Amino acid sequence: MAAVSLSVSTVQPLADRVFVKVSASEEKTAGGILLPDAAKEKPQVGEIVQVGPGKRADDGSRQELDVKVGDKVLYSKYAGTDIKLGSDEFVLLSEKDILAIVS
């Protein structure tokens, strides 16, 4: 079996899925208390690095996604599939799990 090397440039999401680079989680509270790894919350903000071609409509055409590469988005807390490539963390999400575009 051949080994497969995965990177952001080799992963292409299908249908209405997007590949999001997860933003770093908070290291300390507003009061200045350092958080241990077990106490950190899962981040819900990230930047889109790859998008799929879009979902198929009933007539066979593709529906364009509302988000694009480079958009910073807020997504559902427990949505998607977590993927780690090297030292970077990513989430593979369906477009319906994206709650908002952050400006």
UniProtKB/TrEMBL annotation:
Write out the GO cellular component annotations. cytoplasm
Annotated signal sequence is: none
Which branch of life, at top level?
A: Bacteria
Against SMART domains, the record matches this protein to: Cpn10
- Write one Gene Ontology MF term: ATP binding
**Origin species:** Zarconia navalis LEGE 11467
Family annotation (Gene3D superfamilies): GroES chaperonin (2.30.33.40)
The family this protein is said to belong to: Belongs to the GroES chaperonin family.
Keywords from the named record: Chaperone, Cytoplasm
In its UniProt entry, what is this protein called?
A: Co-chaperonin GroES
Known partners and oligomeric status: Heptamer of 7 subunits arranged in a ring. Interacts with the chaperonin GroEL.
Instruction: Give the NCBIfam families listed for this entry.
Output: PRK00364.1-2 (NF001527), PRK00364.1-6 (NF001530), PRK00364.2-2 (NF001531), PRK00364.2-4 (NF001533), PRK00364.2-5 (NF001534)
Main localization of the protein described in the UniProt heading: cytoplasm
Task: Give the gene symbol.
Answer: groES
Checking HAMAP family in the record gives: CH10 (MF_00580)
Q: What the protein does?
A: Together with the chaperonin GroEL, plays an essential role in assisting protein folding. The GroEL-GroES system forms a nano-cage that allows encapsulation of the non-native substrate proteins and provides a physical environment optimized to promote and accelerate protein folding. GroES binds to the apical surface of the GroEL ring, thereby capping the opening of the GroEL channel.
Subcellular location(s): the record lists: Cytoplasm
